[in-house]
Fold each of these.
Amino acid sequence: MIIKDLGEFGLIDRIKSTVSAPSKVTGIGDDCAIIPQKKGFDTLVSCDMLVEGVHFLKNDIPPYRLGWKSAAVNISDIAAMGGKPFGTFLSVSLPGDLEVNWMDEFMNGFNDCSNRYGVVLLGGDTTSSKNGICINVTVLGNCASGTSKLRSDAKVGDLICVTGNLGDSAGGLKVILQNAERSESGLKLIERHYMPMPRVTEGLSLSRESGVHAMMDISDGIASDIRHILKASGVSAEIDIDKIPISSELRAVWPQEAVRLAVSGGEDYELLFSVSQECEKGLEIPHSVIGKIIERSDKLILWRGSEEEFHGFEHF
Ligand code: ADP
Ligand code: MG
């Protein structure tokens, strides 16, 4: 058997089966690990890696934007728990012939994004690379004890909601890869792809609502990500394709594929959450209701308004 046979999530399950987290600590399986502290708060920790050729093409992405994105995708995992991010560790593996200016620009983007969210770089590691650039960021955050939102708490009858629009990032990537016309809308999609804005304020607001049950960020596309909530919570979902929020830019640039990009495309870093019907009415943050949590049936997801089955991104 090779890694490809297991797939990304099969491999993570296999790794998970070799360890057990200490009691009271939430380990592998959510957007962050949760480590309870003594004085009424929990520490949240997560890490995410960006690999040249897998997550980005060096000649396509300006280093400033890669720096921004490296910070943003990590901060987003703290937002996904309803936490407040405060620090990062940055590990880089770089070819010796890389221009110093490239790294300076990378740091400008990394720090601009971090500053925007009140996050500061606290350490890291640096090594040479024989094969391309690899960036790994660890992010730390915190939240009041027991208030973080897990993937495993969705309840039958909950409404399924998302913040923002979906598919813009995938639409922007498609403009880049297909060298399509960079219209005003096309450029906006590219910006959404390179410079995601993690939903920290929204996550904090949702964390204060006891009626918000499960939450995660959308990194691999909702078709893939919602499965994590459904599997962890032992429930199924009905998703109404017509209610998926799609921007006018995505519809303008990719009219035929807007829906598929919105459902299957990754890297929007919006929040996906389940909330009781009563609580949803009073939510203060802008959001769209896209479906409902139902009892577990043989199908994990019933796609209303489409004959198609949708799948998100998975490595291998
Ligand atoms: P996210 O998309 O939110 O970053 P992932 O799908 O990458 O989450 O990871 C799912 C869970 O598996 C997380 O809790 C993560 O910490 C854990 N995980 C992923 N890869 C590994 C690994 N190599 N070793 C231990 N835990 C891992
Ligand atoms: Mg996540």
Amino acid sequence: MFKKETTAKTSKKSASHSETKSAPFEIKLATAAKTPADVLVVLSQQKKKGADSSVAIAHAEVAKSVTNSVADKTITGKHKETVLFREKNFNGYNHLLIAGLGAEDDTEKFRQTATVILRALQTMKVKSAHLVLDGVTSKNALRGLAEGFVLASYKFDELKSKPKKTDDAAGGLVVTLVSKKFGDKTSQKTFSDAVTLTETVNFSRRLGDLPGNLMTPTILADSVVEAAKGTGLKVTVWDKKRIEKENMGGLLGVARGSVEEPRFIIMEYNGGAAKSKPIVYVGKGLTFDTGGISIKPSGAMEEMKYDMCGGANVIGAVLAIAKLKLKVNVVGLVASTENMPSGSATKPGDVHTARNGKTFEVNNTDAEGRLILADALSYGTELQPALMVDAATLTGAMVVALGNTHTGFFTRSEAVRKKVLAASEASGEWVWPMPLVDFHNDDIKGTFADLSNISSSKGAGSATAAAFLENFVGEGIPWAHFDIAGTAWAVGNRLNYCSPKGASGAMIRTFVELAKLHKA
Ligand code: BES
Ligand code: ZN
Ligand code: ZN
């Protein structure tokens, strides 16, 4: 039996409350069910018009035993439908659960189907289930189900003094996907890669969900060092002194107001040929954004603990690439600091110098993400990357433009645009191309320094932020900027495997697909 445990490693240093001892959720893949479990789960599918029956149930014996429920339309095969037969006592299983797939079978549907199955099992308070995959043959279905189960099993309750072990906890539950067709090596790899990837997404989600007092730049860097152990990743962490030596005036300028030291995190993975240029991933690791002296209004300010999700997700992407042993060279760069008001904080009008020598006026201290990314992109440029991408919760304007459905991305390169769209198609994460033209660069010219960190005109705030970043990307380097302000957290309204209030891990899966495409 092929078995993968799905517990993400947690850093002891980052939160002492994390000593909850409930058993982890487990997902396995097996070719046969030897001993029955508590629940038998069978998939149902809506059939095309004109077929004998409107619903196909992927288990001949089960299909025979539920004909009445099909006839009275209790079972329709509709996507995300679950019909539970308690105490069915079928072939040694106590309960029977029938879960609908709908009519088409794209990978995303399988992720969401896995989630409704897991939620049904959680409310049943059972310990084991077999999901028989008769009739399911595609690797995408296997991948979607595995990804969905692991993503849906994530729960952030470690800060409660008495975490609920009942209701909605997946801890201690074992789900086995049973299929004769998936006994081969490639299927097993599809399955284990899906589990590895989504466990890493869960790892990053936790970094995002931890509050600012438990997720400082120092703790973030320590968590990376800890998580990288045994992965073949080289992690280097620069402290404040080193950051000063490295002329990172943007990162230092933002960090001035905080008692917490900034960190610059460098993750290196060499899975490709020695001479092959790396993909550089850059993340905004703002562990708490108060706005600084241009302080934010207090309503929902607590959400600004998520301002490090770009960094957390770059960390997740690079960790996953290393764990999946992709044949590509990658570097992850995360600039991390708090943005606080204090007597030593940067004031509106202050001028700082970025690593590449360009100067900028800080006309609004709340537009800080672009300042720390300026140094990270400058450093990334020095690595002569084949491709550089960054992820950042950069602008409220992005949320206005695209809400929480799509991550907006900016690039001037048609080739990069195509690559990003292909990666997003493969990952199932929605992205949307946004405009970036010279007009946007005109808007962020400085009066007293080279640049201003806010636009001189109204509107297109996400594009002018992207234009600011472009000043720190070397000529000719293929680059795309991803503004995840609307998708980094609270997307559970449309993605049932994300928590309604928690971090989502947005763009980790897409960034991993970008690395896969690069190798090809
Ligand atoms: N971290 C915020 C952007 C943000 C806001 C992300 C809301 C997610 C939800 C960023 O640092 C910021 O405050 N940007 C300002 C820029 C403005 C002052 C030009 C913004 O968007 O208001
Ligand atoms: Zn801000
Ligand atoms: Zn911010």
